[in-house]
Design brief:
The protein has helices at 13-48, 52-80, 82-98, 106-134, 138-169, 174-177, 179-193, 207-230, 236-258, 272-302, 307-313, 315-334, 337-354, 363-378, 380-389, 396-429, 440-446, 450-460, 463-498. With 510 residues, it is an all-alpha fold.
Length: 510
């Protein structure tokens, strides 16, 4: 079979954009599912009564498996067919979602979350890879990536609203079951609509390299989560896992550099615009993931909004991200890719720092910061275009895997590091022993988290404790927003320095 036969034939305009809509819809299901689970966890915990460790694994299993498999599944797709990998991912994701009907123990739910992670790892990088292959014109590809990014932003915001609506009428299982009809549709339509493509002459499959990438990434993500759980960088299990990750990933990089056909071509980082795009994706998720999670908690526990009301009030982020995702490629052509990307990062940084500005934090004062953060997220369209347009087609799977890994790792790091900072600030600043009617054990329990403090205040009928906890959490939220904003400014400076001055996302890679 010739090299040309391994690439899809040119598609018509309507066919290309129908494929782009399908690929974006696939991502929508994944992002909605991620945020729906946050709403469903309390109902799930009340029904199945998992231990604290089991609940943590229900939450963490997905991201651990996803991080470990992104490189391997993307490389397998390059070899055996990207369409096949994507359709198999739809099947795995949909089947795991359906099996929740028979799950009646925390262990079974954890197993299903692992299966969802496998399906997600097959789907997420492959959608990006296929966009790179289907859209051969770089300018049109940038618009398709804008659609892909816009749908992702909408999915993250729609999740809490959909979750709240479903849980009002159904059990927590509905948060999984909603995936089944959607995956069935994209599986059937994708089988007819999507073209097949794979890399010609990819070389032998690197089994030791695959094992190294899986072990190293799982160990890295687990160590970060362990540090966050123990709230100390001196956690012995966390340090051991981090050491394993450093050694194994170091050996993996050395192996990749020495092989003619590596599992992951780390030489892609020699392209400055590729490196800049990866840094931008990692930095944005690191700074924003924890801030948005803390904001959702603040709206529900401090302001008293329901999950649905909270989701609606987070819509400025989704609307701004959608608009800027669509506009960013056009702005990059008119102005400059570096200016648009760095401008979005700076705008998001300002938005996060504005959280710390008002002395009396209210939702009205949050609208502008949320909008600026959304515009910053939308500028990631340019980062994706820099990553994918600057990469040869045969390395598209590698580039997609690295981009998705940077998003996943940034999310985990952000929640762990900034989430831990917020928890530490809350515990340190909120001296509950000074609250009338609160003894030592109650003060210690209330200092664990805002949720614990509010539950104790309600049970013990101590409104002053609730007010004290709300004030402490709001202060920690504002400080964390300031820290995240400063970090984003540092990321913006690094991206500006890395990005070549005349970077053009409408130029084909060679």
């Amino acid at each position: 079979m010739s090299d040309t036969a391994l690439a899809p034939p040119p598609l018509s305009f309507a066919h290309r954009w129908a494929a782009a809509l399908l690929l974006s819809a696939s991502l929508l299901v994944i992002t909605v599912d991620l945020t729906i689970l946050n709403i469903a966890i309390p109902d799930l915990a009340a029904d199945l009564r998992p231990t604290a460790a089991q609940q943590l694994w229900i939450i963490d299993a997905y991201s651990l498996v996803l991080a470990g498999l992104l490189v391997s599944t993307s490389s397998l797709g390059d070899r055996f067919g990207r369409k096949r990998m994507l359709l198999l991912g739809y099947l795995v994701f949909g089947s795991a979602s359906l099996l929740v009907l028979w799950a009646d123990s925390p262990t079974q739910v954890i197993a299903l979350r692992v299966a969802l992670g496998v399906g997600g790892a097959m789907i997420m990088p492959t959608t990006l890879t296929m966009l790179r292959v289907i859209f051969t014109d770089p300018g049109e590809r940038a618009k398709a990536l804008g659609l892909w990014a816009a749908v992702s932003g909408v999915g993250a915001a729609v999740g809490p609203i959909a979750g709240g609506l479903l849980l009002e009428s159904f059990s927590w299982r509905a948060a999984f079951m909603v995936n089944v009809p959607l995956m069935a549709i994209v599986l059937v339509v994708g089988a007819f609509l999507l073209p097949e493509s794979r890399v010609p002459s990819p070389g032998a499959w690197d089994w030791p390299g695959a094992l190294m990438s899986i072990t190293g990434m799982v160990a890295l993500v687990w160590s970060i989560k362990r540090f966050a759980k123990d709230q100390t960088l001196l956690s012995v299990p966390g340090l051991i896992a981090l050491l394993i990750a450093a050694v194994v990933l170091g050996l993996f990089v050395r192996r990749s550099l020495r092989r003619e056909h590596p599992l992951l071509d780390v030489r892609l980082f020699r392209r400055p615009q590729f490196s800049a795009g990866i840094v931008a994706a990692l930095g944005v998720m690191f700074a924003m993931a924890a801030a948005l999670l803390l904001l959702a908690q603040w709206m529900q526990l401090v302001e008293g909004f329901s999950p649905i009301e909270t989701g609606v009030r987070l819509l400025p982020v989704a609307v701004a991200a959608t608009l800027s995702s669509v506009a960013a490629p056009w702005l990059a052509r008119v102005l400059n890719a570096r200016i648009v990307l760095v401008g979005g990062l700076v705008g998001a940084a300002i938005g996060m720092m504005l959280i710390a500005a008002p002395t009396q934090l209210t939702y009205a004062s949050m609208i502008l910061p949320l909008t600026l953060v959304g515009f910053g997220m939308g500028s990631m369209t340019v980062a994706s275009a820099m990553i994918m347009s600057g990469t040869p087609e045969e390395k598209a799977g590698n580039a997609a895997a690295l981009e998705e890994t940077s998003y996943d790792l940034g999310n985990v790091l952000g929640v762990a590091v900034l989430g831990s900072v917020a928890a530490m600030l809350y515990t340190t600043d909120a001296d509950f022993s000074s609250v009338p009617g609160v003894d030592g054990p109650l003060a210690a329990a209330a200092g664990e988290s805002l949720g614990a403090a509010m539950a104790i205040a309600q049970e013990a009928r101590l409104p002053e404790l609730a007010r004290h906890a709300a004030t402490g959490f709001t202060d920690s939220l504002q400080t964390t927003g300031l820290i995240g904003g400063i970090m984003l400014l540092a990321v913006a400076a690094g991206v500006y320095a890395l990005t070549p001055r005349r970077t053009d996302i409408a130029v084909q890679a060679h």
